[in-house]
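Handoff note, outgoing to incoming analyst
You'll be picking up this chain. Sequence as last confirmed:
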Amino acid sequence: MVTIIGAGPIGLACGIALRKKNIPFRIIEKGCLVNSVFNYPTNMTFFSTSDRLEIGGVPFISHGVKATRREALEYYRRVKEAFDLPVQVYEDVQSITGVDGYYQIKTNKGEYQSSKIIISTGFYGIPEKLNVPGEELSKVKHYYDEPHPYANLKVLVVGGGNSGVDVALETYRCGSEVTMAVRDEALKPGVKYWVRPDIENRIKEGSIKAFFNTTVIAIREDEVDLQTPEGIVTIENDFVLAMTGYRPSFPFLEMVGIDFHDDQYRTPVFNPDTMESSKKGIYLAGVVCGGLNTSKWFIENSIVHADQIVNHLESKKEFVGS
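Most recent structure output, in case you need it:
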């Protein structure tokens, strides 16, 4: 039995590859099916075209060239049903003990034995914190859903990447008074090319106020302090939308016993040919492989991990004739 932890697109791809080889498996997911996609902003459009998000050979046809979040959720539900994937949702893995061939998995719902484990938990579960006074206030949001709750209110958007730009434009068009705090001297180079002219023009005309080379240093109920090149600036504020990115669950990987390279990204150690980690019998798949370098792996370029892992598993005697 193989246990896949994480029912995102790559976890599902691993399940499909195992199904095709008749290797028994289960998929455990702490949230809902493709939980990371579900947590994307309601009106989000993928950067990639829909065909590049396909898994298992199931066609993904979207209304536009680029798929929306809603279309992706429907698509991955259809994939799960097409291959009858055994996904156990809202089940959180609490511990993994044992050795290769005899792993014990304990969750909030039960205990399981598994000879091999595939970890495909992504990086969307833990937000990068600002680590400033007041961040614990309910007005501070690290996940964004839609603009309506912030209509006609004073909003500070922290971050100059795609998420920050999308949030700034959406809330501005919903009637929010939007200020951006960007720690770099300019918006990130990777901002979507069809969005960049819009945000740059809004900033230029003053519809959206932007502070560059700026960080948040304190948050209060009705104000925020910004450290700018000209000194500390205090602005009135109702909500802080911190689009500062996310990170893999390093404590979980450490608990499992996986080693890390001594680099700035805390990249997990794994064999790039088989995707087996430093812990024998435990494999890594998808964006979790990049550590803090969350721009290295995407759905499109990590789908291949599924076949790499399953081909390696198939070569082992214990799965012959499964």
